[in-house]
Amino acid sequence: MVTSEHEPLHGQKHDVNVEIRGPSATDVSHSFIQRWNEACDYTNPYGAYPSLNEAGMLPFPERCASPIGRDRVQIQRTIRKHAYRDGTPAPNQTRHFDIWNGEASILAQYEIAIKSAKRSIYIENQHIAHPHLLQLIIEALDRGVMVTYMVPGFRFEQYLNPTLATIAAHTIGKSFGSMVRYLDGWFRWMSPPPRHQTLCGESPISSESQYANVFLEILPKMASHPRCFLGGLIVPDSHYQSLYIHSKIMIVDDEWFTCGSANLVDLSLERDHTELNASVWSRDAAKSLRVRLYSEHLAADTQGMDDLEAMKLFHSRADANQKLMLEGKQLDCMAHRMDGDVYGTVLFILSLVLERRSLPRSALK
After folding, report:
1. In terms of Cα–Cα distance, which of 315, 250, 229 is closest to 16?
2. Are 263 and 248 in contact, with CB atoms under 8 Å apart?
3. Distance between CA 136 and CA 112 in Å, rounded?
4. Are residues 260 and 179 in contact, defined by beta-carbon separation less than 8 angstroms?
5. Over 90: is that where the pLDDT of 146 sits?
6. Gap between the Cα atoms of 286 and 250, Å rounded
7. Fewest CB within 10 A of the end CB: N or C in the chain?
């Protein structure tokens, strides 16, 4: 995990990274070369990359790095269809991979992990917009799993005191929900979305406004579950300034975690982007990551607690922190709870505004 100073760089951010050694590092190298050799512009007469005669193609690794440690690490990817052709196998594989038809193993890992969870799921992610995964989380909650989902917060507090900020947020969430739904229906009637092919089949999702069901229904349903916590982080020693969560991790049952570049949205998991994640099956590594994150977010040592005890502490301290914020007092830690209805409505309003910028004028007449 990166250090916790959170130096300002285009605003305050929280992120998590992993260093990989051993055979899985060879897999990362192979994936990089596989993409680089086809993505570089040496064939373009105006390209910045040196010509093929001067540089040549990068060679694939011929053997795996020696094993280091006991942790099991697996690399997953999202590869867009019809973007790459060279399916040269990794050193420990015997057959070519059909990379031409894409890959969605990150999505598959998330699905399996959420379905397999027995006790707890801890998520930090920049996005919260994949309807299928949110439904799986709701199913996990219904079977008794505790869930913490940490996301970027909004900065009402920059303009209002905490009490007025909360009132304003709830006014946006409660008073304009029906109007937002009406506007979404009107815009979709004026400019019906085309259907897109994804790695998982045809999808009608073509723009942010198509996430209305996610932001206005599924997300609030998940967040309102008694075993679910939707929250954000506050910059330490600031006037309630939101800390932007840029990390993409999930820890399950203190036994398994994934960390990488994939956001929990269809663009990163099944349609457009190319992503890379590392999944680690190790009780020691998963608990160590959880303890370090909770230490930073809660200012508390949870080393002697199991995952459920630690998560209950997380929820209670973050709820108490939210109360302190509403009272205008100094906070005890960085974590705080957010309202799912408010968060979903604001997300949808923002996405609707962003989408309208790209619509043809005829659609707005």
Report:
1. 250
2. yes
3. 10
4. no
5. yes
6. 10
7. C
**Non-local CB neighbours of 243 within 8 Å, separated by 6+ positions:** 6, 12, 13, 14, 153, 232, 233, 234, 235, 334
Identify the burial level of 360 via C-beta atoms within 10 angstroms of its C-beta, where 0-12 means exposed, 13-18 middle and 19 or more buried.
exposed
What is the residue whose two structure tokens read 């990488």?
Answer: 260
Q: Structure pTM?
A: 0.83
Spell out a b/e string for 216-247, using b for 16 or more CB atoms within 10 Å of the CB, else e.
Answer: bebbbbbbebebbbbbbbbbbeeebbbbbbeb
Residue type, 308: L
Say if residues 288 and 281 touch (Cβ distance below 8 Å).
no
How far, in Å, CA of 153 to CA of 243, rounded? 7
- Pairing of β 72-79 and β 103-104: antiparallel
pLDDT at residue 43, rounded to an integer? 64
Compute the distance between CA of residue 126 and CA of residue 129 in angstroms, rounded to an integer. 10
Task: Report phi then psi at 191, rounded to 5.
Answer: -145, 80
Instruction: Give me the mean pLDDT over the 37-54 stretch.
Output: 68
